[in-house]
Amino acid sequence: MNFETISVIGLGYIGLPTAAMFASRKKKVIGVDVNQRAVDTINRGEIHIVEPELDIIVRSVVKDGYLKAVTVPEPADAFLIAVPTPFKLNCSEIPEPDLGYIEKASKAIAPVLKKGDLVILESTSPVGATEQLAVWLATARPDLSFPQQIGESADISVAHCPERVLPGHVVRELVQNDRVIGGMSNRCSDRAIELYKTFVEGVCVKTNARTAEMAKLTENSCRDVQIAFANELSLICDELQIDVWELISLANRHPRINILQPGPGVGGHCIAVDPWFIVSKTPELSKLIHTARTVNDSKPNWVVNKVKDAIFNILQKNPNKTSKEITIACFGLAFKADIDDLRESPAMSIASSIAKLHHGKVLAVEPNIKVLPVSKKLELVPIEKGLDEADIVVLLVDHKEFKNVSPRGSSIVIDTKGIWSK
Ligand code: SAJ
Predict the structure, then answer these.
(1) CATH number for the domain running over 5-202
(2) pLDDT, tens digit, for every residue of 201-225?
(3) SS3 for 401?
């Protein structure tokens, strides 16, 4: 069956580029989002997120009539759900996944589903979420049959196909990356593969829904565990007065060793979240994954304590000075290098904590933004001013702009990314 009309539910960092990709292959695409401003922006041919090259594609597909955005779902042949799956903090120390957005999306598309439609869950999800989605759809539409009821011959096909693209490289990775496609039946997988083949040049690998869910969680948990190893090394090396960056580069000369880089903590919307989806499901069996999360989550606090020690040292050496006279500059606020995204950023949380605890000036140097989003007790300044005025320089993100400058000899340097260490 041909997919003439494709609907993408959730027009964020994954949904909008995916919708634009289908539309660029001359498919009629209906994007759905609850955010009226995002819908209006897209219908003007503009974008509400930062992603290189995406603006050009969206402008062209909207102008040519292949992509439109709406707030209420309309009939289509395939529905891709790309809504957030955050976690909710409850009384236990293990955060639980929140499937509320998926449930809302399933209830929104149910009324327009028709026999022969394909529904794909793209959102990163805990194991079992695709089956749960199919249950929500079946409950809302008892007149249609679903794979969990009659398998291959169901009216509606349901599959999980997790997104795996790297922010900042989404347009290229959407086309080139391999896709893991897990249908609730063999036919569901085959139909989903047929759909993605519209624009995917990578291999579409077939599996079942649960394995596809776990594959995505495994990828991000693997990275989290590896970063935790690097972060733990950084604490050990600090205690033993060893340069962790030199140590890692030496160890990485071994042909089978590839240690990642320590930093101020792990940020973003995926790697710091997805491991919890495994831990909350199988807490007794996920001890390593749980510990890695704890190690990475505790790193920002360790950095803040380093800053407190530096303030203490300056005051001890200069008894006539007060903490009000000490200026601290935080270099980098984004959640990783060379992007402008401050959400879920350990750098931002460290800078805010310093601003809260310190009585003197706290400067922020972030070349990728023009204004600070919220009024924190932080002053956004250019690189040179940060270097010139700071008694304590805290390097939090390895932006390319910081690699060609060096801190003044008179300041104390806390370099969490190792670009100035030597
Ligand atoms: N980080 C380190 N040390 C490193 C590498 C990264 O501290 O050696 C930190 C970064 O500074 C950042 C965090 O980890 O704070 C995450 O950055 P990232 O570049 O590792 O990953 P994300 O969150 O931008 O994107 C990840 C990708 N997953 C993997 O590489 C396994 C991407 O492919 C996924 O599609 C994305 O998560 C997602 O949406 O799940």
Answers:
(1) 3.40.50.720
(2) 999 999 999 999 999 999 999 999 9
(3) helix
